[in-house]
Amino acid sequence: MKAEPRARTPDRQFVIIGAGMCGLYQLHKLLRMGADVTVLERGDDVGGTWYWNRYPGCRFDSESYTYGYSFSKELLAEWDWTEHFSPQPENLRYVNHVVDKFELRPHIQFSCDLKRAVWDDEHRIWTLELADGRTLTCRYLLTAIGLLSAPTMPRLAGMDSFRGPSFHTYHWPKEPVELAGKRVAVIGTGATGVQLIGAIAGQVGELTVFQRRPNWCAPLHNAPISAAEMASIRARYAEIFKKCDNTPGGFIHGPDRRRVAEVPRGERLAFWERLYATPGFAIWLGNFRDVLMDEAANAEFSAFVADKIRERVTDPVLAEKLIPKDHGFGVQRVPMETGYYEAYNRDNVHLVSIGETPIERITPTGIRTSERDYEFDLIVYATGFDAVTGAFDGIDFVGTEGRRLRDYWRDGPLTYLGLQVAGFPNMFMLAGPQSASLSTNFPRGIETVVDWASGLFEHVVQRGIHRVEPTPDAQAQWTAHVEEMYQGLLLRKAKSWFTGYNSNVEGHDKIRYMIYNGGAPRYRQRLAEVAQQGYAGFRLG
Length: 541
Ligand code: NA7
What we know:
It contains 18 helices and 20 strands. It has helices at residues 21-32, 49-52, 64-67, 73-78, 88-101, 191-200, 227-235, 237-246, 265-277, 282-285, 295-312, 316-321, 340-343, 390-393, 405-408, 442-462, 472-487, 520-532; strands at residues 12-17, 37-40, 108-109, 114-120, 125-130, 135-143, 166-168, 183-187, 206-211, 218-219, 336-337, 349-353, 359-363, 366-369, 373-375, 378-381, 396-398, 427-429, 468-470, 538-540. Helix 16 (442-462) packs parallel to helix 18 (520-532). The chain is globular.
């Protein structure tokens, strides 16, 4: 007869991977529960996204006061945001302030690069192997490894041969980078490239942008927050967070329930003018609801935005190059810009459409396209990320019967609630693929998941339960539901990270269902039902 598995005592009860916004909140919750917990962070300080991304122009696209944590009244009362869309240095200061206030730092171990995690089903523990050879065991492994934390470089010949500095935006150096008078190349025009280009156009000598496909960008309309405004925001925090709770994306912007065709043309144009002048994502998430669902509605709004680009870019040939022709507005993540289109009116800014004249190679002195050679002092790769699953693929997770996560997810993620994977007991993804955190204003999404997961952890710890795993049925149903939620949306056709595309990663050239598009309220409701039903879909014990 097979002996009953016996839980062995691990080094730690809980290990959290990652000290960004998500991991830090989970740490705080577990400490308050009195749990034995430590965080392993690969960087040498806290902050995650806000620690790594230091490129000029990096800032929130979320209203600052909707991005901060909502869990502590005291924190809300004492922190002042200085801009409506706060820049990276301030965001990093905020994260550090939270860490100090809640005395989290002693519970975080830095420079811990997790390479492998192996589940031992007999003893019900995870063994974690770090890059430097150290190991640690834990009962529960909680990943907070970010959704855009595995940067990807193009696969171009000669990249190592360039004599000047070159780096991915994610690895923009901590030390100041000399830009004045320099000839700078930026490859990539996603949300990152668009922030960077707007910020440095006036600082560099010459700026040459290599654009593969243009994006539909919209004005951010950032502004400082005065002391009086901050006082008013503070007085309205409860109302602001309630509003975020009730919108699909966790922002203060929710869809207008009318359809484009229901509104007389003059009225809808006036509405769109107002949206174009409104700060933040209103233009994307506060638009008529069918703009993101119906081809004709989307085409009409896209034509409106195309005209805005034509108004803002003085050279009509250049303007056409900046207008996307292969997808409509909002089908891909909308980059929010500050002076982006006007940058192209400057004499020192040049656009190279590499859709027309592809890059052939990087040379020791610059970039060679099919048309000519360009010379640069600095090359910046704003080429995006192996989004969502990339950070997981970077760690060798080995579950029951030797199942490897990166193989199991080869054709796309399979999860239950975006939280757990069958065959990987006691591993919880706090911002995993197919959860709502990825499609929402991130902190709003992660507070939901962390609060809920903390309830589950309390439940299992109190009952002496040592093993939690989703049933294959529950997982299959959730994954099918996630896929179904893509069907009504035009974004299902996009070739962007929302659908798991990345030309720089082998095999990432077909749709993968990465994010939960059912909206945050529906996701929260589902989590609540699962808990009420005694954690339906999970096998406990
Ligand atoms: P994105 O949005 O994935 O953008 C990456 C950009 O880089 C995009 O313009 C790509 O062109 C371009 N790209 C990628 N690979 C190449 C190669 N090989 N050659 C030329 N151009 C390339 O990443 P971001 O960092 O801008 O934004 C990520 C998220 O960060 C964003 O959504 C926010 O949530 C914050 P393409 O469009 O694929 O033709």
